[in-house]
Amino acid sequence: MSRFTLRPCAALLFGLLALNAFAGEGKPAPAAVATAPVASMPNVPSAARDNSNLKPFSEVIRDAQRQNGLFPIWRQNDKVWLEIPADRLDQPFFFTFNRVRGIGERGIYGGQMGASYVASFKRIGDRIQLIAHNQTYTAKPGTPAAHAVAEGFSDSLLGSTTVVSQAHPERKAILIDANQLLLADIPMGATALEMAFRLPYSFDPRQSSIGKTRADGDISALQVTAHYNLMKLPLPSGVSSSGSPQAVLPSVLEDPRSLFLGYHYSFARLPEPMAARVADDRVGHFISTRWDYSDDLSFKPRVHLVNRWRLEKKDPTAALSEAKQPIVYWLDKNIPVKYRQSVREGVLAWNQAFEKIGIKNAVVVKQQEDDADFDTAEAHRASIRWFVGTDVGFAIGPSHVDPRTGEILDADIGMSDVFTRGSRRQFVDDLPRAMTGNRHDAYCQYAHLAASEMHFSLDMLEARGDIRPDSPEAEKFVSDVVRDVIMHEVGHTLGLRHNFRASTVYTPAQLANTHFTHNHGVAGSVMDYSPTNLALKGESQGAYNMQTLGPYDYWAIEYAYKPITPEKEEAELAKILARSTDPVLAFASDEEAYEGADPEASVFDLGSDPLNYFERRIRLSRELWQRLESRQLAPGQSYAALRNSFESSLRQVRSATSVGLKYIGGVRQLRDHAGSGRLPLTPVPADTQRRALKLLTGQLFAPDSFRLSPDLLRRMTPDRLEYFGPARQPTELNLNDQVLGVQRGVLDRLYNDQVATRILEHSNKVERGGQAFRLSELYDTLQAAIWQEARSGGEADLGRRNLQREQVRQLVNLMTRPSSQTPADARALARDNARELSGWLQTALNKPRLSKETRAHYADTLAMLNEAMKASYTRSGT
For 430, what's the count of Cα atoms within 13 Å in the CB-facing half-sphere? Predict the structure, then answer.
């Protein structure tokens, strides 16, 4: 899934954010200029003198065991001290924490990367402060601007502890109390728990402890078992009438009043700043952003740097050279053995891109042994590991970055086992309930769709007889998905963002060609969210998933990692960027995909004609429905299999429909700079919008769009062992409600203020003499498709009546409750449609032989429209 680089501020809530991403897949951490020193508050002496009341160093650590590291660790049973050499006070180091133990639901998972900081230890009297230095705002050292920056921006205190010893007589080092420093809620786990469950969990230092510790020359690592508790359980409460989130008890704990989380803290050496590379928006990399106040000559003080590993040739003069220090990915010992080869292949696939720029074996894979004495959560140890939970279904590729230069210092890919588990269907069904009121929605969108995609594909292939459950073919299919997902997540940890335009670079003919798809993939990049490349029945079948890197991936790696001497860098990067108009290098990221206006930038579409993909997916879903009609279950098999397959296909309809909707009022958004020969903004042609609207109304609003036989509906029951209690699945499948949910989403989008505004505005962007798609076309076409029965005086069944009520609700809202953003033309056209519909209904009511239900529905709708047309409107927001 999506990737994020943790911001120092937001990362403190990483316990809740599992993501990126949304989000959401997430955003990169801000950074400072490579040449900047560690930012700090105005210089304050560290008060290094010893007080006579402190014990001698040797007395404190008597009978303790020493582990040598960046900060040597001393331990005697449960008591732990850190030794701080005198020359390392006030000196920057790399401080990170990761969660190695969770509770298994609502984002509180184990194996998740936390935050990282450029930090230092600062002595104030007999206390040592752990300071996180603000690296975002900088100026050239020694200048007046540097003083202004120091006065204008603050560092942050992460924690503090006591000095417990006098200085060592030879080493001049001091001892600090590690228990006091780390048995505190530095990761803000209590906040994450409260956001997840709306319950006031508190960190409990008395029942928390330091577990395993490890140190070597560059790192000191300590694991903490952190206890959180509730003083009392809340009283049961009903649903809030305001819709505000309500408290919910964790469902996975023996006693919801008490839980343990595990954190892995690393104190690691900070490397000397490497040369930074300036980012460009035509190719997608995660970036580190700094504000450089050194001069006022720049139009804006922000500078954006590519996030990338420090990767150099052993022999800079050779055309192809081994990497001086390769990027090593450790495979955690918790990865299932049967998938380790697929994971390994997914990682090593990236070596092809590095070899093209002259670096051989840039990426190396190592397997953590079962008896290894290190944890893959340690800083400077890139890793891949599995994690589990009752409501998980995503993979994530976060990284820790040196904010001074954008250098990636660590990355920990998390892969949930839902992608490989036969019960992944349970995740798809449970997620909407499990995530209610949780801020995971932004990035779990991909998790839901990815799990649903694999579920639907295997159901379809099984129904056709192309793959048998639990067969070697099914195992290979799942292994290929694992490799595809790992390639995607490794790409994130190499610094690459999503590319949601990459799925449109190949034609349907190319996607149907087995040889082509095996050699070139099914999309231009592994950084897209590509659906399974499923052929219609009778068509040639290409590869199901990405088999290799796409051309965009090679290009993005070249820009970030190609070895270039400083004096040639600007010219060489310009040559690389000059290829940005190559169709196979097409790029768009989260901004275009989730803003919802560019039909070529979507999640889960495939092929050079996304409208064609939309139509094909609807046809595939209907094929599965037809196969379910005749499917004979084995004796003893649960009927829930039929219901699960149908609901999976309905999710496909909803997902594919979102692709078609982008064409209405859509605009192609390119990231071109001047001189490319293309315009950055191009409204979707009127004829293409009409084609999209015809497909949407024909596939979703026709009277027989969702017709299933009574026999199939009577056989679709829930799994009664999986769904019981307050969250149980209804015994009967309510087809009308589920279909209306899809149709309501379409109408909400098509009657949206932003869509109306774009359609109206696009008339200004059409060349003189050209034809623009009109808002009246949209509203008239929708009404004619939805009210076919009223126009002909015919009967409307329950499903049609539900859809018609929903369309009238849209009209009434536009007329009587427009928002401050509703265009006046939209309100006027809604009123015109209401008058037209009233005439149809009046005529229909004069027809004989209507059922009582249909007649009542027509009469009620007519009365509602008449009242709305008479009512004065109130514009919200004014």
Answer: 19
Sign of CA dihedral 181, 182, 185, 188: positive
pLDDT tens digit string along 541-592? 999 999 999 999 999 999 999 999 999 999 999 999 999 999 999 999 999 9
SS3 content of the chain, % helix, strand, coil (to 5): 40, 20, 45
> What number is the average pLDDT over the span 117-125?
97
- Contact in structure between 457 and 427 (CB atoms under 8 Å): no
Helix axes of 775-786 and 753-762: crossing angle, nearest 10 degrees: 130
Name, in order, each residue with C-beta under 8 angstroms of 92's C-beta and a sequence gap of 6 or more.
38, 118, 119, 120, 133, 270
Q: What separation in angstroms does the CA of 70 have from each of 79, 88, 866?
A: 19, 9, 78
Of 81, 836, 105, 831, the closest CA to residue 822 belongs to 831
Tokens linked to 78: 């449960």
Radius of gyration of the chain, Cα coordinates, nearest whole angstrom: 30
Nearest-angstrom CA–CA distance, 573 and 567: 12
pLDDT tens, 590-623?
999 988 799 999 999 999 999 999 999 999 999 9
Helices 340-348, 472-493: crossing angle, 10 deg rounding: 40
- Any bridge partners for residue 79, and if so which? 76
Domain locations in the chain as residue ranges: 31-233+245-268, 499-592, 609-731, 751-878
How many other C-beta atoms can be found within 10 angstroms of the C-beta atom of residue 638?
Answer: 15
CA–CA dist 20, 444 (Å, integer): 9
| Residue 240 token pair | 């809030």
| 106, 429, 739 from 250: Cα distances, Å | 9, 18, 32
The whole-number pLDDT of residue 449 equals 62
* Residue position matching structure tokens 């070697």: 472
pLDDT in tens, 314-353: 999 999 999 999 999 999 999 999 999 999 999 999 999 9
402 closest CA partner among 292, 284, 302, 305 = 305
Determine contact, residues 285/560, Cβ cutoff 8 Å: yes
Measured torsion, CA atoms of residues 848, 849, 852, 856, in degrees rounded to the nearest 10? -30
Residue spans of alpha helices (H) in 682-823:
686-700, 710-715, 735-750, 753-762, 775-786, 788-792, 798-816
Taking only the tens place, the pLDDT of each residue in 77-89 is: 999 999 999 999 9
Cα–Cα dist 34/138, whole Å? 10
Angstrom distance (rounded) from CA 111 to CA 101: 7
Whether residue 374 contacts residue 330, with contact meaning beta carbons closer than 8 Å, is answered with no
